[in-house]
Amino acid sequence: MPFLEVKGLNAYYRNTQALFGLDFELEEGSITTILGANGAGKTTTLRSICRMVRTEGEIRFDGDDLTSFSTEKVARRGIAHVPEGRGTFVRQTVEDNLQLGAYTRKNKAEIAEDIERVYSYFPPLRERFKQQAGTLSGGEQQMLAIGRALMLRPRLMLLDEPSFGLGPLIVQEIYSIMRQIREQEGTSMLLVEQNANIALNLADHAYLLETGTVVMSGESHIIRDDENVRRSYLGY
Amino acid sequence: MELFLQLTLAGLAIGSIYSCVALSVVMVYQASDHFNFAQGEMAMFSTYIAWTFLGMGAPIWLSFVLAVALSFLAGVVIERLLVKPVEDAPILNQIMVFIGLLVIFNNMAGWIWEFTIKPFPSLFPADFGFKSSLIGPHHMGVIGLTLLVLLLVFCFFRFTRVGLAMRAAAANPDSARLVGVSVGWMLALGWGLAAAIGAVGGILVAPIVYLEPNMMAGVLLYGFAGALLGGITSPGGAVLGGLIIGVLENWVGGYVPGGSELKLTFALILIIAVLLFKPAGLFGRVVVKRV
Ligand SMILES: Nc1ncnc2c1ncn2[C@@H]1O[C@H](COP(=O)(O)OP(=O)(O)OP(=O)(O)O)[C@@H](O)[C@H]1O
Ligand SMILES: [Mg+2]
Fold it and tell me: What pLDDT shows up at residue B288?
């Protein structure tokens, strides 16, 4: 049985439907990416998993039916969401943001250890630990958002366009840290991107999304190397 | 000089009570995005609860603690039962709930305890072991106790995990949920704390204004003025705002001929002036709402 399994997922914003019978799955320990253009429904997919939009259909995670959960309960089951726009607590310090990421956990010593580990993945955060999150640069904020998600000790991380609005160098840096995290923590990741090239390099599996449905799926390297797919779906 | 000091110290004492009310108002505002017009009546009701315990023979400090604890629970329950169900309702419906609460508490208090004015004892001894010609013992105790309460509240928000979660829930509910915070309960907790702090204010002001169902009307107005002056988004600002209002009010009463009649007018003028010229208050942030 897959770690995360989504079947026949419809999602709605008031009366407008954004997802139409979406199916996909993710194996434990793997990185799966969902690619698509603006408005394809990538963010909505992640928000459906975290119960932030109204949905129909199945969402199963490690044996649990998530559709009956609240957002905070999904978090307590070990799903950490790095949302679109990063969602940091801008008035709180970097350190408080990380503490909040560990809100579901009790053991203070382990939390302190994990803060240390986040700092070792993202050294710029260590220097700014007393700074208000809102005063960080875009790249640092993205680091903080990922660091905050790590503080949950997640079993699954949902990442919504971590490359958004960042220069190519910082995007490279963040993706190489994500690769390290995957190697060292073995965290499963569901990664949503418009930047297909970089996401396909990291991910094991990929799904292509168009107006709320999956139009193609397969192993990342196959999709990456298929020129027809690249031209017709990814546009490069 | 002596008169000036007397007026100022008494102003600080009454101002610290306004600070309690202002802080309650700000905490509810942070949680629910609204002024709780019933905050004063809730505090009045809490004071009657303390008075009832007193009547049953409980010592004054025990009555105080019990009333504050019950107020906390009542605040939580009111949020869950009455405020949460209308959180997505049109703004007028929400305001009606607050005004409804005000009327209900006022009438209930009058019905249970009658509208006659009752003396209410001070929490503090008539003699702290030393005397001052500048400030009476009740006022001295009021300043000390409110400082202690405000310090506790500050430490709770600053240094505890739940305090941090409450701030996060108010600032960014979506992100708070994503890290596992039960935002709804944090808002209810905010209401509970506001009710408890309001109760402290009510019990402290009762010996000064006497106990009756309308005793908080003026105090709430000054509390609102303090909250607006300091900045409705800033708990610390609200506390300072309350103190400033208390002192200014006393100066007006003491120095302006006929000033004691003008005090309430003065508070209203201040509210309007702040709204006109510095809508975010002295210490508040200008909040730009995204549409
Ligand atoms: N809050 C909302 N209210 C109404 N419709 C919405 C809302 N959010 C998204 N939609 C619609 O749902 C569809 C999917 O949007 P979604 O945000 O999931 O796309 P996306 O793939 O994440 O796009 P992007 O790459 O621009 O972030 C779009 O048609 C969008 O207009
Ligand atoms: Mg999106």
Answer: 52
Residue B272 has pLDDT above 80, yes or no: yes
Chain A / chain B CB contacts < 8 angstroms: 61
Smallest Cα distance from A232 to chain B, Å? 35
Q: With CA atoms as reference, report the closest residue to A33 among A230, A188, A141.
A: A188
Q: pLDDT band at B290, cuts 50/70/90? A: very low
CB distance B177–A70 less than 8 Å?
A: yes
pTM of the predicted model, to two decimals?
0.90
How would residue B169 be classed by pLDDT, with cut points 50, 70 and 90? very high
**pLDDT of res. B258:** 80
What residues of A are in contact with residue B168 (Cβ under 8 Å)? 89, 92, 100
Among A159-163, A188-192, B84-88, B101-105, where is mean pLDDT lowest? B84-88
Cα–Cα separations (whole angstroms), residue B51 to B46, B55, B263, B275? 9, 6, 28, 37
Cβ distance of B178 and A91 shorter than 8 Å: no
Identify which of A169, A18, A4, A166 has the alpha carbon closest to the alpha carbon of residue A81. A4
- Residues with a CB atom less than 6 Å from ligand 1: A 13, 16, 18, 36, 38-44, 84, 194
**What's the pLDDT score for residue B74?**
97
Closest CA–CA distance from residue A220 to any residue of chain B (Å): 28
State how far the Cα of B226 lies from the Cα of B23, in Å rounded to an integer.
9
- Total count of domains within chain B: 1
Look at residue A58 in the predicted model and tell me its pLDDT.
Answer: 96
Q: Return the SS3 of B133.
A: coil
Alpha carbons B24 and B227: distance in angstroms, whole number: 9
Please give, rounded to a whole number of angstroms, the shortest distance from the CA of A34 to a CA of chain B.
20
Instruction: Tell me what pLDDT residue A236 has.
Output: 63
Residue B285 belongs to a domain: no
Q: Which domain holds residue B6?
A: 2-277
Range in A173-182, B122-131, B193-202 with the lowest mean pLDDT = B122-131
**Ligand 2 is an ion; residues with CB less than 5 A from it:** A 43, 84
Q: Does residue B264 form part of some domain? A: yes
Q: Which domains does chain A have, with CATH numbers?
A: 1-78+154-236 (3.40.50.300), 86-152 (no CATH)
CB–CB of A103 and B179 under 8 A? yes
The residue contributing the CA closest to ligand 1 atom 1 is: A13
B265: pLDDT strictly greater than 70: yes
Residue B291 within a domain: no
User: Which pLDDT belongs to residue B209?
Assistant: 93
CB contact under 8 A, A87 and B178: yes
Alpha carbons within 13 angstroms on the beta-carbon side of residue B237 total: 17
Considering only CB atoms, B174 lies closest to which of A52, A90, A101, namely: A52
Q: Could you give the ipTM of this predicted complex?
A: 0.94
